[in-house]
Specification:
Helix content of chain C: 25-40%
CATH topology of the largest domain in chain B: Rossmann fold
CATH topology of chain C: Pyruvate-ferredoxin Oxidoreductase, domain 3
CATH class of chain C: Alpha Beta
Shape of chain B: globular
Largest sheet of chain C: 6 strands, mixed
CATH superfamily of chain C: Pyruvate-ferredoxin oxidoreductase, PFOR, domain III
Radius of gyration of chain C: 15 Å
Number of helices of chain C: 6
Strand content of chain B: 15-25%
Number of domains of chain C: 1
Oligomer: heterotrimer
Number of domains of chain B: 2
Number of strands of chain B: 15
CATH superfamily of the largest domain in chain B: Thiamin diphosphate (ThDP)-binding fold, Pyr/PP domains
Chains: A alpha/beta, B alpha/beta, C alpha/beta
Largest interface: A-B, 35 and 41 residues
Distance between the termini of chain B: 50 Å
Chain lengths: ~250, ~350, ~180
């Protein structure tokens, strides 16, 4: 009988430190099983961010380093320049990538760095306890927007995938979600595509995952999935924003 | 020995790095060191190296950190305000035990300040502006030849210590030309096998290893972090003994002792010559390593013979703080300085020193 | 001990730094100690340019000077600003094509060089700085004309090689 579920060698057989219902576990699983399927676990190097997933290297079974807040794409740039034939990725949340690290991710894309960034967007600062992030939705409550985010005070949430897709050095940009089995399957396909773009040396690639943070959203895991579908996906539409595969001659 | 060549300081610094085995350079334009990224941009590709122009000095230090994590010998340069931006990365690299060679072609501050020579980055480089307990060896050459020799050897020091190393030059050194002898070119290790052999901690992927490397800076448990900091400081204690460098010049048993480094030391050398010709016994302690700061030559001074120790610097008493720390109240200390990009003349130092001597008598 | 402190000043584009560099290269080739220190930064952009060259028989401590044995001024603001730097009995070279004023001091040796006029006459319009350099070398003997020619041959290679002949012509065109 075909097994319904198998662990991946890309993840170590340990418990993660993430909360129940957090999207990191699923994202980790998807990314690492893609790298395993490509047979690249031995020559992949990852960079973890500042945020809940700073400890991703305790779970992901590849060589990794930590990076200062927001700087993961710069660090990944350095690694890729030393090992141009390795797979190199950064793994970052929305505070890390869309706030303090905008410069680094934009310029990694501008330089067309042949790295892949996995961007976990849960619209909140998780590790520090639920503060407003640049992707927090209008009206969404956080510990720094207790009456809900107001555009006149806090500005309007940023759509990073759309922004990065305008950069010529970006070769693959897709936004996916982790809220349903169907979306998870699509997410896996997106990761495979992004890694393929890196292997082909086409340029910078990024997959944005619409994720959940039940703890800081103040919802149950199940309600979080519903909230993501009803609130986040309408504002952050899923889809491929850039794909230069096939353009190459 | 190779023949002498006349080179601009900033270009000589680059040659020293390349010949020292560096094949990765990251930089961002800022006066007075912009000739460094310019030179590296055309020279690195010719020498089998990599040049990256970063988006900011934050980018510079973090790309360098990535290169170093992956086992590359990396050189990064900037000037004072850019070095300030890099402090985050320096603290991080010390904590993660990653070697980076950093050149500060310093200028005046605070703020934008000016582009003329200054030494007001003394605290920034010796104390560090980053968070936490860490140390970075700092070398301050005073001639172009010395700068070349120091940069050339810094990659090895950084690798052995698994820590950043800073070279503190200034705008005058970066811009001036002086004949130098360039050292033999060392062969950098570049292949994955070589990196794994010489830097077994570096990230090269698990496929040719029996273990998985991780480079970390975050410690969830205070006991583990304390243990790590104690480990770092055991390293620093060893470095404090092994890396201290200084030169003493001038009369035996000097009546007046100047302390100066870098560009200032060259001017003070002239002052000492004039004083000694006039029959005033003068000498200089020239720290070459600013951390570790050389304490031994201060301990060797006799309070019976030496009337005063004068910190001669292009800052508001930053060097004086270390001088006082080393003299420990045994001998009076004084300050002769100019700031804002002004370098005092030989005569100005001479007159101020004589005035100090007169007041002490 | 013999040490010569030289200061070259003019406006950007007059080739002031190249004069200093050629002296430095020639002095180094003669086995002398030398330092070359240019002005740098924002003041380079269309403003004044100057450089300090020290040539010595022994190691040079400070590359900075406050008085000069040889001052070369290529424009009027430089004369006004720096004339007082010249040590008594030492040299002041004035580019008389562009400066119609005389030296105000009589305790120094002023040499007037029609650098642009001579350069034009020999058909090397861009060689005024080399005309001046030839005058400086011949008058002060800090370095020899041959030494400068060797330095030029060493420096003007590749794309710049085409300037060599004209520069040598300009360098040797001034007569005392």
């Amino acid at each position: 009988m075909k097994p319904l579920y198998e662990p991946t060698e890309g993840l170590l057989p340990v418990d993660t430190s993430y909360c129940a219902g957090c999207g990191h576990g699923v994202a980790h699983k998807i990314i690492m099983s893609c790298i395993e399927e490509k047979g690249r676990l031995g020559d992949t190097i990852g960079v973890s961010p500042i945020g809940c997933s700073v400890v991703a290297h305790q779970f992901m079974n590849v060589e990794m380093c930590e990076s200062a807040h927001g700087r993961a794409p710069a660090v990944a740039t350095g690694i890729k320049r030393v090992h141009p034939n390795h797979l190199v990725f950064s793994y970052q949340g929305d505070g890390d990538l869309a706030s303090i690290g905008v410069t680094e991710v934009v310029h990694a894309a501008v330089r067309g760095e042949k790295i892949t960034t996995f961007f976990i967007n849960n619209a909140i600062y998780g590790m520090t306890g639920g503060q407003m992030s640049p992707t927090t939705l209008i009206g969404q409550r956080s510990t720094t927007s207790i009456d809900g985010r107001k555009p006149e005070i806090n500005g309007i949430p940023i759509r990073m995938s759309e922004l990065l897709a305008t950069i010529d050095g970006a070769a693959y940009i897709e936004r996916v979600a982790l809220n349903t089995p169907a979306n998870i399957r699509k997410a896996k396909k997106a990761v495979m595509n992004a890694l393929e773009v890196q292997e082909k040396g086409l340029g910078f690639s990024l997959v944005e995952f619409i994720s959940t943070c039940p703890t800081n959203w103040g919802l149950t895991p199940v309600d979080s999935l519903k909230w993501a579908a009803e609130n986040m996906i309408p504002y952050y539409p899923l889809g491929v924003f850039k794909d230069t595969r096939g353009d190459e001659k | 020995m190779s023949e002498k060549v006349l080179m601009k300081g900033n270009e000589a610094f680059c040659e020293a790095a390349i010949r020292g085995g560096c094949r990765f350079y990251v930089g961002y334009p800022i006066t007075p060191q912009s000739e460094i990224p310019e030179y590296m941009s055309h020279e690195m590709p010719k020498r089998g190296g990599t040049f990256v122009q970063s988006e900011s000095e934050l980018g510079s230090i973090n790309i360098s950190y990535g290169i170093a994590c992956a086992g590359g010998n990396v050189f990064v340069s900037s000037a004072s305000p850019g070095i300030a931006l890099m402090q985050e990365g320096m603290s991080f690299a010390c904590s993660a035990e990653v070697p980076i060679v950093i050149l500060n072609v310093s200028r005046s501050g605070p703020g934008i300040g000016g582009i003329q020579p200054a030494q007001a980055d003394y605290f920034q480089v010796t104390r560090g502006g980053g968070n936490g307990d860490y140390k970075i060896p700092v070398f301050a050459p005073s001639t172009m030849q010395e700068a070349i020799d120091i940069i050339y050897n810094s990659f090895e020091i950084a690798d052995q210590l698994r820590n950043p190393v800073i070279i503190l030059a200034d705008g005058m050194m970066g811009q001036m030309m002086e004949p130098v002898v360039l050292p033999e070119e060392k062969q950098p290790y570049k292949t994955e096998a070589e990196i794994t052999k010489y830097k077994p901690w570096a990230l090269t992927g698990t496929k040719n290893k029996d273990h998985r490397n991780r480079i970390v800076s975050y410690w969830a448990k205070p006991e583990e972090l304390e243990h790590h900091i104690i480990h770092l400081f055991e390293k620093y204690a060893k470095a404090e003994k092994e890396l201290v460098r200084y030169e003493t010049i001038g009369a035996e048993d000097p009546e007046i002792v100047f302390v100066a480094f870098g560009t200032m030391a060259r001017i003070v050398a002239e002052v000492i010559e004039i004083l000694n010709n006039e029959g005033i016994k003068a000498g200089m302690i020239r720290p070459i390593s600013l951390w570790p700061f050389p304490k031994a030559p201060f301990e060797a001074l006799s309070p019976e013979k030496t009337k005063v120790v004068i910190s001669t610097e292009l800052s508001m008493g930053q060097l004086l703080a270390d001088v006082e720390n080393s003299v420990q109240g045994r001998i009076p200390t004084r300050l002769i300085n100019r700031v804002g990009g002004i370098v005092p003349t030989t005569n100005e130092i001479l007159e101020r020193a004589k005035k100090i001597l007169g007041e002490l008598k | 001990m013999s040490q010569t402190k030289m200061f070259f000043s003019g406006s950007g584009g007059q080739g002031v730094l190249l004069m200093g560099k050629m002296i430095a290269y020639a002095a180094m080739a003669d086995g002398k100690e030398v330092t070359f220190l240019p002005s740098y930064g924002a003041e380079m952009r269309g403003g004044t340019a100057n450089c300090t060259v020290i040539v010595s028989d022994k190691p040079i401590s400070s590359p900075l000077i406050h008085t000069a044995d040889v001052l070369v001024v290529m424009n009027l603001p430089s004369l006004t600003k720096f004339e007082s730097m010249v040590d008594p009995d030492k040299y002041l070279f004035i580019n008389s094509s562009m400066i119609d004023k005389k030296a105000t001091r009589d305790d120094i040796k002023a040499v007037y060089v029609d650098a642009y006029g001579i350069a034009e006459k020999i058909g090397e319009n861009r060689g005024a700085n080399m005309v001046m350099l030839g005058a400086v070398a011949q008058t002060t003997n800090v370095v020899t004309i041959d030494g400068i020619i060797r330095a030029m041959e060493h420096e003007l290679t590749g794309k710049k090689a085409k300037f060599l002949a004209g520069n040598i012509k300009a360098l040797t065109s001034w007569q005392p």
